[in-house]
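Convert to structure. Protein one:
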Amino acid sequence: MANESRPCPCDIGDRSDYGGRGQEVQVEHVKAYICKPPASTDKAVIVIHDIFGWQLPNTRYITDMLTTNGYIAICPDFFVGQEAWKPSNDWATFDDWLKTRNASKIDKEVDVVLKYLSEQCGAKKIGVIGFCWGGAAVHHLMLKNPHLKTGVSLYGVIKFFEDRSNLLHPTFFIFAEKDEYISMEQVKQLEQKLKQNCKVHYEVKIYPGQTHGFVHRKREDINPQDKLYIEEGRKDMINWLNKYL
């Protein structure tokens, strides 16, 4: 079991036995995992992984879950071949590792994926969700990319974009009350800046008693009482996407 005092404990409760229902594809220079619903749709969601990369079973589970809700869902490798973080790695080296993986340097890959979704999958309305590092990337895209319709940032690392709040698209921010990586003071400051500067619809929601990574890990394996909040977080995410896509 992971130690929750680690810098970024997304690995707790991995669904290591989950293989995924989709397939891996090559999208120009980017590998990606994609899953499509049985019925045709023009709605798609880009899933941005956390530090544990695009192959993490937890993230593929959520990608498939989006598909069961009627969306084309794609999780590209935004590290573009660089190694994902491993729970067995030395956390003392984490900051140096992170310097080579900037959540604001994904625009080229996003453009490639948007083109693929539009030309190869028939997608016309595209949103984005992301976890932790990926949540910060969602924040970046909501500030910059005009082609996305909406975003859900799940425990996105606020410090990466703490001074930026002029969002282009409706954005839902999910945070955990007991997150040891993102303080409630940071969340409060983000809310204040959004209130002052944001011209589009946004929502910031804090889930009681939860810790970092709760929505996309099998948290009920550790604390069954948290299952309600996992399900609520996932439902809220889907409802937001349904509203704006």
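Protein two, convert as well:
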Amino acid sequence: DWLALKPQEPSPSQCCGSGCKPCIYDVYEKELAQWERARAKQDKSLLMEKKEQSNNSELNPDTFTAFNISSVEQLTEDTYQYKFELPGNSSLGLSLGQHIVLRGVVDGLEIQRAYTPISPGNAEGYFEVLMKHGELLMLASGTGLAPMLPILQSITNDEEDETFVTLVGCFRTFDKIYLKPLLQDLARYWNIRIFYVLSQETSLEKLPWSYQENTYTGHLSEDLLKTIINSCRRKPYVLICGSSAFNEDMRRYLKAAGIEENSCFVF
């Protein structure tokens, strides 16, 4: 029971690298120390201190405070304005140019990012921030993976880029997947998903367990592509690279899934 309650150490991709106070690692160290104290005393009520702190209406540079989202307004195709409630007529009380750190869970991974509120500094009862969420779907067959990698790396190297990316790599067998360590490292980022489709594999049982959940056997069919598109947060912009037959099939499948031609780019 105690191990299930132990805080999970953040991965490097969860830190935005902006020098946040507190950093996600600072929060982890504090929560770990709190867990260790509670375990030593065999008193789980000591773990409730964090929840009591989160209900505090005043911002605290040493801990996170929970606020409700009162509205979300879509301003452009990939930009949203989030409005958070503040208790009563309270205000953030930030100085000009100061930022806040927002923490949340995305696809089961806890992340945090720094944002400068766009609401007036003296706004009472609320504050607002802008968040930009683009969506890319990459469909690659064999060596068609090559032009996708620089794009992926440019997104993960830019701490302010919050584009969600789904990469679908199609290969004949598991052994034919190249640059596995790099792909596995990219898949650890909170905004990157990678799927594999292996046309000549008949079973996933012989694959390493870390690949089994996100790998399919057979070909990338119209139905499978629709399933992947439906798992995206919004209609994605699609990048395609493979053989001429693969490219043509993907364009046909995407059209059937409701993706317009001007939302696709073929390398």
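The chain has a mean pLDDT of 84. The chain has eight helices and eleven strands.
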